[in-house]
Every structure is written in structure tokens, then in C-alpha cells.
Amino acid sequence: HILDGASAPFVFDHAVLASTVRLVGQSGAAALRAPDSARLFEFRAGACMVTMQNLTLSAPVLVADASLRLAGCRFEWSFAHLGGAIMMTAGSIIAEDTAFTHNKAQSGGALYASGGTASFLRCLFEQNSATLSGGAITMNATHTGVTLADGSLLI
Fold it and tell me: Are 103 and 110 in contact (CB under 8 A)?
């Protein structure tokens, strides 16, 4: 259980001794938040595959040379300097049926990717904004791949 007042960020890296981790939310549960726009989760090199399912987050996450799967999640009202909802420096993200709404950053309102690959299937990017570049998505490297498929929408 993630409790209010627990220390953020929650870091997943080589020190987490598990082959897979599933973070599952309950329907209608309140959004998970971190204080002062801090990152709530950090997925770092050596982490096992992490799946987040049915979670609502109002805090950004970091994917740094790790693998993250999102299913039925919502990222809303998050703010960060780079990647209002997600900053990816390397690794992979597979998101299905996930919504990114009202997130803000200087670059990449919803996603800032400077390495790795991200696939979005049936995802919604709506009313995300950035003051410098990429209202919804910013890709800032030649070795970055982002795919929107299966009816994903940028609104």
C-alpha cells in the first residue's frame, strides 16, 4: 500500500529483488500525488519489469533505462521541468488505454523522451502544454522512438 505522507520518490532499480512488480489501483480511488511536483516513481537501470494498472497519478514519473508498462492509467495535472507526466531517458514504455490530460512542463507536456522507445496504444493526450516545446510529446534524441497506434489521439 502507498500511504499518504510516505516518502517520494519510490525508486525501482537493481536493489528491488523481484522478477516483476505490479502496481494496481482501485476504480474510483483518489489520485496519487507527490509534494511540490516531485517525481512519485523512478524506474532506473536494473529494475525488473514494472506494470502500473488502473492508477491515477498527479505526479510525474521517471523512466531511466528501465521497462514500464501502463494499462488503464491516468496521468493528470502533473507538472515537471521535463515531461509533465513522464520523463524517459532510456528504456521502454508500453502504454495501453491510458490518458494524459492537463499535464504541464517546459518541454514535453505529457512525455519528454531523450532516449528509448515508447508505444502508445488506444491512448489519449488531451490539453497537455509546454512553455518551450512539445505540448504533448517532445523527442530530444536521434535514438528515440515514439509510436502512437490503435486510435491513440493527440487533442
Answer: yes
Q: Which of 100, 110, 103 shows the shortest CA–CA distance to 139?
A: 110
User: How many contiguous H segments (helices) and E segments (strands) does the chain have?
Assistant: 0, 18
- Output the pTM of the full model: 0.91
Query: Tens digit of pLDDT for each residue in 15-64?
Result: 888 888 999 988 777 888 887 778 899 999 999 999 999 999 999 999 99
Judge whether 56 and 74 are in contact, CB under 8 Å: yes
DSSP state of 36: G
Cα–Cα distance measured from residue 49 to residue 31, given in angstroms and rounded to the nearest whole number: 23
Give yes or no for residue 95 having a pLDDT over 60.
yes
First-residue to last-residue Cα distance in the chain: 34
Contacts of 49 (CB under 8 A, 6+ apart): 19, 20, 21, 67, 69
